[in-house]
Design a protein that fits this description.
About 0% of the residues lie in helices and about 50% in strands. By secondary structure, it is an all-beta fold.
Length: about 325
């Protein structure tokens, strides 16, 4: 079932994020007056807007929900070089809510392209991909007082980062996969960084098979799958390649000492798709969703041979309205 949700956005919708339970939805876009909108899923099974507010001074690129154990917290990042931390306030009504700005993080003079809260077992930490070539990780000094955040870690990623994702496993040290803009040859790297236990440094432990196009390329999105009892990790990435736009990388953390790159699989049928922009795993890490310029959400699943195949596709209400970001 597909439901069309009318929004107050006038520009391209840049990001859509579900909360932890999938009952709330936050959107942002490239509006002339950048807005963030929040929608709730009501008892009748429909989405309705509960809040809308002006946020940044330029395009809002990405949103991120914190784990609900820390409250209703939303972060946003923008081309205006800032990250905003928002907290929901009780308005004593069932139809509207109010979001208040608790902090503005501005340690870069370049646009911030992506943000992600770390898994809840790691505390209230937020990673940011900044266009000055640096990943910055912020920590809330007091989870009961969101006004105070500190720059906990930062490291350069040998390029311009476009997207990032945390390793969700609590049995591994903190790890981030970072997708970059392409270099002068059109190669867009994909790298894994790890903070070893007892260390204050982040080290690059794997230079994965990235994406590339002679006319220029970038890694559009990355997603690290929940491990859920598997003996190996899965990371999905999408880029602007002529072929192999969608890649699924499989590896064990033990592999980093044994082999230079993880095993990578690219579904052949994905080569026929136009401009894949986003990927996301389900909660068990067994089904991958992709979407792009063709206005179709496709679901992918691995067979017993380890080959990823499309299992279903879901067209949008108005496929012709889909457009590149």
């Amino acid at each position: 079932q597909v439901e069309a949700i009318p929004t107050g956005h006038t520009g391209h919708v840049k990001d859509i994020q579900y909360d932890h339970y999938g009952r709330r939805l936050a959107t942002c876009s490239a509006d002339a007056k950048p807005l963030i909108e929040v929608y709730d899923h009501n008892e009748q099974g429909h989405w309705h807007m509960t809040s809308e507010w002006s946020s940044h001074k330029a395009t809002v690129n990405k949103l991120a929900w914190a784990h609900p154990q820390f409250g209703q917290i939303l972060a946003s990042c923008s081309d205006d070089t800032t990250i905003q931390i928002w907290e929901e306030q009780d308005t004593m009504t069932l139809t509207t809510t109010k979001w208040c700005n608790r902090a503005t993080l501005s340690d870069t003079k370049q646009p911030v392209k992506d943000i992600a809260f770390c898994p809840n077992h790691g505390g209230l930490n937020l990673a940011a991909a900044c266009s000055d070539g640096t990943i910055r990780i912020y920590e809330a000094l007091d989870v009961m007082n969101l006004n105070d955040w500190a720059l906990k870690d930062s490291f350069e990623v040998l390029g311009v980062p476009r997207c990032l994702a945390w390793n969700p496993s609590k049995f591994d040290p903190p790890m981030l996969v970072v997708g970059l803009e392409g270099d002068e040859t059109g190669h867009a790297p994909l790298r894994i960084w790890r903070k070893a236990e007892g260390s204050q440094m982040w080290d690059m432990i794997c230079d994965m098979e990235g994406h590339g196009h002679p006319a220029g390329c970038q890694v559009n999105d990355v997603a690290w799958a929940p491990k859920m009892g598997r003996s190996f990790h899965l990371i999905a990435s999408v880029g602007q390649d002529m072929t192999k736009q969608l890649k699924i990388h499989r590896f064990s953390t033990r592999d980093f000492e044994a082999i230079p790159k993880p095993e990578t699989y690219s579904p052949i049928s994905a080569d026929q798709m136009r401009g894949i922009w986003r990927v996301e795993w389900n909660v068990t890490g067994t089904v991958l969703a992709s979407s792009g310029e063709e206005g179709i959400v496709r679901l992918w699943k691995s067979n017993f041979k380890g080959e990823w195949r499309e299992v279903t596709s879901i067209p949008s209400v108005d496929v012709a309205a889909a457009a590149p970001m």
